[in-house]
Amino acid sequence: MTLALMVVVPYFTSRLLHPARRQPGTGPAPAGWSRMREFPHLLMATSMVAMVWPIGIPAQVWIALFAPIAVWFTVRAARSRDRLPHGSRAVATYFAVSTAAMVWMAAAHGVRAGGHHGGMPEATSWWSPVVSLALGGYLLLSAGWWASRGLRLTPRWQEPGGSEPPESRSGARADGICHAAMGMVMGLMLLAMV
């Protein structure tokens, strides 16, 4: 898990420091907006590294960080009308669910002493493992979808007419692979808590 995240963190750091010049089909994107889009992904990737290893960050910190981001992605999903890859309702919903899963891991399962995730608390309700199983399964299935997009195993996802520049297409592939790695790691973390 750590090795997968070690690839993802530098990628999203680079995207944050050097924002995309344009959003597919929408013309130039302001640098601040591009950075705001990339920051949650970088935060999630670095936070997962901290959750895998015993760093000792309290659950309340994770909840305070990820609950507002989950709400933001939920609002984006509700308002979205654009096409793939990043403007679609399905993709925004995926980001909302994955961010909410971070909140779930912190709130429902807690962070053990020392910050390490894994195992259920002593007193849990019957539905807690069911929610973890559902979220973990969803994230693993979604990781397969992202991987197929990143590896071009599915039809092209660019705007009609091929108006995207080549660097945008390669960025879409890298995004797909990085989101697949993050979804896989988070899905496995959730399944390990069942």
Description:
There is one protein chain. The protein is mainly alpha-helical. It is 66% helix and 2% strand. It is built from 6 helices and 2 strands. It has helices at residues 2-17, 31-52, 59-79, 89-107, 127-150, 166-192; strands at residues 22-23, 27-28. It has a two-stranded antiparallel sheet with strand order 1-2. A hairpin with a 3-residue loop joins strand 1 (22-23) and strand 2. Helix 1 (2-17) runs antiparallel to helix 6 (166-192), helix 4 packs across helix 5 (127-150) and helix 5 (127-150) packs antiparallel against helix 6. The longest helix is centred in the C-terminal third of the chain and has 27 residues, at 166-192. Mean pLDDT is 77; it is low at 22-28, 111-116, 118-123 and 154-167.
Strand content: under 5%
Spatial separation of the terminal alpha carbons: 18 Å
Order of neighbouring strands in the sheet with most strands = 1-2
Question: Given the C-alpha coordinates, what overall shape results?
Answer: globular
**Radius of gyration in whole Å, from Cα?**
17 Å
Count of individual beta strands = 2
Number of helices: 6
Largest sheet: 2 strands, antiparallel
Quick check: average pLDDT?
77
Low-pLDDT runs: 22-28, 111-116, 118-123, 154-167
What oligomeric state is this? Answer: single chain
The structural class is mainly alpha
Q: Please give the share of residues in helix.
A: 55-70%
Give the helices and strands as they follow along the chain. Answer: HEEHHHHH
Features:
single chain, mainly alpha, globular, 194 residues, 6 helices
